[in-house]
Amino acid sequence: MALNMFVIRWVKVGFYFILSSFLFACKPPAFNQNEYDWKLPKGFPSPLVPLDNPMSAAKVALGKKLFFDEGLSFNQSTSCASCHQPQFAFSEPKKTAVGSTGQRHRRNTQSLVNVAYNSNLTWAHSGLNQIEQQILIPMFSENPIELGITGHENAVLQRFEKQNYPKLFENAFDDSQATYDKIVKALASYVRSLTSFASPFDEYAYQNNDGAMSDAAKRGMELFFSEKFECFHCHGGVNFTQSSQHENQRLDLRPFHNTGLYSVDEKGAYPVYDQGLIEVTLQPHDMGKFRAPTLRNVEVSAPYMHDGSLATLDDVIEFYAAGGRGQGIANPLKSPFLAGFDLQLEQKQDLIAFLQSLTDHHFLNSNSNYPLASL
Ligand code: HEC
Ligand code: HEC
């Protein structure tokens, strides 16, 4: 009996010893996430990052290689970058996306610009807040199939045990073994690293360079921020979308609006194949609500809207001037900011010039021509 107690006690002590050394060993290294260089203009707040996935240059490097690797799709035909193409601000010139089996997605590929600041992800989801969660959709979704990994988990994972992947995993996670957890964390870090704050507008507004924007673009900016055109109510803040959060502001202003694109009945219904936020919240007043997208680099991310149904910026501005489209103009659920306005040709040109001043050529150039062959 006494011996047993003795043994049990020592087993316990040993257990605590092992546990504490395990905890000690697993304790994340003291990592100040602000040590990561976000390349933000001076004074800009850093994005919030999940505690279990701090940013590091090594994770971004691994995530970048994975993002451009077609081996991430079950049939090796499609990568994240097949849809999110760098030269189009990580969107693509298609109305709606097409997955690795040729299956068509109902929505337009979103651009990936300052996504690290988005408090809601995708076109219409109030509960999808972390990039790590969102990335699981293109990887594993079966309807529609995007990368189509489900059912092929082992075969896909084995591809990341070759080339210089083990070394990249080792650098990023102190462990060379590929796992889906690490793949998702690295991809999320790469997506977070895609910050764009070097447009002529930024130079004008934040670097005090008066000559950075043309006169037309400056006039367009006045219109954009005017009570007549109303754009800024929904496309506000540094990212021109209300869906932003950062270290100085955690308030979530709900960024979803009905802009009167459709009304297939008298009551404001959107087409059954995509009715927006209502699909998630089941609240009737969320019919036809979608997230106001960022307008940064919008010049290169045509076509527009959640279904790619407006081809050009000209069409978008005509659409707002009309207060919606077709039957959608009388949509009873339409935002009160979509009242419509009369528009002179010169005003339209000025507004477009302003939107073009949000194009960050440095961002587009530094991410295109990704040297795949050298990896
Ligand atoms: C078949 C084309 C396609 C592929 C492949 C694809 N995406 Fe997407 N992506 C989309 C579409 C379409 C949306 C909008 C989805 C929605 O609203 O339901 C989107 C949305 C996103 C968003 C949300 C952006 C925001 O501002 O909310 C992120 C982040 C993203 N994708 C990252 C990735 C990553 C990382 C990969 C690779 C693992 C990937 N995507 C693969 C088409 C694709
Ligand atoms: C009531 C809020 C609201 C107002 C006001 C508003 N927008 Fe939007 N904007 C949105 C939403 C929501 C979307 C996406 C709608 C969809 O896809 O169903 C959008 C989409 C866009 C797009 C397409 C972006 C893309 O990537 O597809 C552009 C460009 C745009 N708006 C510019 C403007 C301009 C210019 C004005 C002022 C004339 C304006 N918006 C006023 C909410 C608004």
Q: Could you outline the blueprint of secondary structure elements for this entry?
A:
Layout: H1 2-26, H2 57-67, H3 80-83, H4 131-140, H5 153-158, H6 165-173, H7 180-192, H8 200-206, H9 215-224, H10 231-234, E1 256-257, H11 278-281, E2 290-291, H12 313-322, H13 345-356, H14 361-367
Antiparallel strand pairs: 1-2
Helix pairs in contact: 2-6, 2-7, 4-7, 9-13, 12-13
The structure holds heme C (2 copies).
Could you characterize the architecture of this molecule?
The chain has helices at residues 2-26, 57-67, 80-83, 131-140, 153-158, 165-173, 180-192, 200-206, 215-224, 231-234, 278-281, 313-322, 345-356, 361-367; strands at residues 256-257, 290-291. The protein has a two-stranded antiparallel ribbon with strand order 1-2. Helix content is 35%, strand content 1%. The protein has two domains: 52-196, Cytochrome c-like domain (Cytochrome Bc1 Complex, Chain D, domain 2, Orthogonal Bundle); 200-363, Cytochrome c-like domain (Cytochrome Bc1 Complex, Chain D, domain 2, Orthogonal Bundle). It has 375 residues and is mostly helical. The longest helix is centred in the first third of the chain and has 25 residues, at 2-26.
